[in-house]
Amino acid sequence: MYGRLLNLAYAALAEKEFKQEKSNFWEEPHQKASLWKPCADKKDSERLGKPDKSNGYLMVSANGGLNQQRVAICNAVALASLLNATLVLPRFLYSNVWKDPSQFGDIYQEEYFMKIMKDDVNIIKELPSHMKSLDIESIGSLITDADIVKEAKPSDYLEKVLPLLLRNGVVHFLGFGNRLGFDPVPSQLQRLRCKCNFHALKFVPKIQQVGSLLIRRIRKYDASQSMLDKQLLGEFMPSSASKMNDPTRGPSRYLALHLRFEVDMIAYSLCEFGGGEDEKRELKAYRESHFPLLIERLKKSKPISPSELRKLGRCPLTPEEAALVLAGLGFKRGTYIYLAGSHMYGGESRMYPLTSLYPNLVTKETLLTDSELAPFRNFSSQMAALDFIACATSDVFAMTDSGSQLSSLVSGFRTYYGGRRAPNLRPNKKRLAAILSENSTIGWNSFEDRVRKMIEEGQRVRARSFGRSIYRQPRCPECMCKS
Questions:
Q1: Are strands 57-62 and 86-88 parallel, antiparallel or unpaired?
Q2: Is 337 left (phi over 0), alpha (psi -120 to 50) or beta?
Q3: How far is CA 70 from the centre of its chain?
Q4: Separation of alpha carbons 323 and 158, rounded Å
Q5: Helix (H) or strand (E) holding 283
Q6: Are strands 91-92 and 336-340 parallel, antiparallel or unpaired?
Q7: CA–CA distance, 114 with 196 (Å, rounded to integer)
Q8: Which of the ends of the chain has fewer CB neighbours closer than 10 A, N or C?
Q9: Helices and strands per DSSP (H, E), number in the chain
Q10: Which runs of consecutive H residues, i.e. helices, occur in 393-476?
Q11: Count of alpha carbons within 13 Å of 483, Cβ hemisphere only?
Q12: Is 109 helix (H, G, I), strand (E, B) or coil?
């Protein structure tokens, strides 16, 4: 789609190799970033604490993949506190999309989770035996997403759910995606969500161990011991005493890229990606097969053209667009790039503009052997956990869709634990679309300048604003302390 710009990028990167120029995006540009410190787990005299008497049991069956489930767990902890309920360890619903039977204990350390949250919320592994025979649906205690609006307020739960809990002694949330808003929520409940997300949810040792192996193979050295390593890898954190190669050299830096260019993402977007009539037919057939509700909605609404969607910044970035952004930011051709995600739409041919510009591109599938990956292959959430680790502990994290759960959670984790040493690169897709619309005339220097300003704008150190996710933007008094 952008042949001329890609040719300019090749020439610019070749020139940078000779000039030994360095990108200045390996570190956060603002000193203020280091003023915010993690403190969601601090002891607080105003802490809500556990009630003397529980109002009943709160069960949650979380839907979605790894990252949606993680948000559901944290929201469940906050709700258990709000309702004075005992939380039954959340379960994960099986999805025909994700095809993963993993449960909480297959991904997270159960005992550790319960230990960290024990002073705030009563948590048990199973519903007591005398409650198991209850038909929860027939007594009216089954609550689905249809019963609770998205981004619901605490008052919604106190008015609709608490009476059921008091009457029946148990409520069961079946599906629990995005059902608790971020404001207005009492500060102590916000703190519990942060404590759960950033402190209580630790991956099980088998995920930590292979995640550590993955990172060592990307870096080629065992020299990094950051706070992010410690939090995500536990006892499997790389040791600075061991070097895999030349001990006189420092560790290999790497950039992690979350490229949302899977077929479901681009089909749902309704955008076009330069593939002509074949692409249109293929994506139309995929929508009809996988997104019947989208098809019904489209029949009742006025269509927006693919070109207008692109102008509005609603289209997923293509591999060549991602390559152009990285080149515009000055990342050298030899930069090691870890690519997160599953199979890219269009395969190797579609990825060629990115892999030819940045040949040192690796994935978990290329870094780990078949036998090392075998225990995870049929478990998409556990595979996603490996991507989470590799992205969160990278030297730079670049996302192409800031609205995705993985990008939001990873960037928030890096903000919480990274200080100034874990920059996130977040493009403004609407501004980028305007820049790329001039692809036949714009000069490379002008392209670089505008792309850099766009990314720098996204790196400003801001406190969380009203309504924004505390998982993505934890710089707020409930999650972090400002020195």
A1: parallel
A2: beta
A3: 10
A4: 49
A5: helix 276-290
A6: unpaired
A7: 10
A8: C
A9: 21, 13
A10: 405-418, 429-436, 444-458
A11: 10
A12: coil
Amino acid at site 284: K
Mean pLDDT of the region 14-39: 84
Phi and psi at 337, nearest 5°, equal -125, 125
Collapse the DSSP code of 203 into the 3-class scheme (helix H, G, I; strand E, B; otherwise coil) and give the result.
Answer: strand
Q: How far apart are CA 443 and CA 434, in angstroms?
A: 14
Q: Which of 67, 69, 48, 41 is nearest to 154 (CA)?
A: 48
Rounded Cα gap, residues 90 and 107, in angstroms: 12
Q: What is the mean pLDDT of residues 373-385?
A: 94
Q: Are 321 and 2 in contact (CB under 8 A)?
A: yes
Q: Are strands 123-124 and 91-92 parallel, antiparallel or unpaired?
A: unpaired
Burial class (CB in 10 A: 0-12, 13-18, 19+), 347: exposed
Task: Return d(Cα 440, Cα 3) in angstroms, integer.
Answer: 9
| pLDDT tens column, 59-68 | 999 998 999 9
Task: Characterize the bridge pairing of strands 36-38 and 480-482.
Answer: antiparallel
Residue identified by tokens 């998409």 is 380
On whether the CB atoms of residues 391 and 400 are closer than 8 A, the answer is no
Q: Are 324 and 11 in contact (CB under 8 A)?
A: no
> What is the rounded CA–CA span in Å between residue 261 and residue 344?
5
Q: Region 404-432: what's the mean pLDDT?
A: 93
What does the pLDDT look like over 112-166, one tens digit per residue? 999 999 999 999 999 999 998 999 999 999 999 889 999 999 999 999 999 999 9
DSSP 214-242: HHHHHHSS-----HHHHHHHGGGPPPTT-
| Burial tier of 206 (Cβ tally within 10 Å: 0-12, 13-18, 19+) | middle
Q: Which spans in 329-379 are helix H? A: 347-357, 364-367, 370-373
Structure tokens at 128: 């007591």
Query: Token digits for 110?
Result: 């159960």
Residue 245 has pLDDT above 50, yes or no: no
Is the peptide bond prior to 184 cis by the omega test (within 30 degrees of 0)?
yes
Per-residue pLDDT for 416 more than 60? Answer: yes
- Rounded-to-integer distance, Cα 254 and Cα 390, Å: 10
- At residue 95, the pLDDT reads 80
Render the burial of 364-403: b for 16+ CB within 10 Å, e for the rest. beebbeeeebeebeebbbbbbbbbbbbbbbbbbbbbbbbe
Q: Tokens representing 139?
A: 């007594």
Reading the block at residue 442, the tokens are 């714009």
Residue identified by tokens 């499997």 is 236
What is the residue-averaged pLDDT of the chain? 91
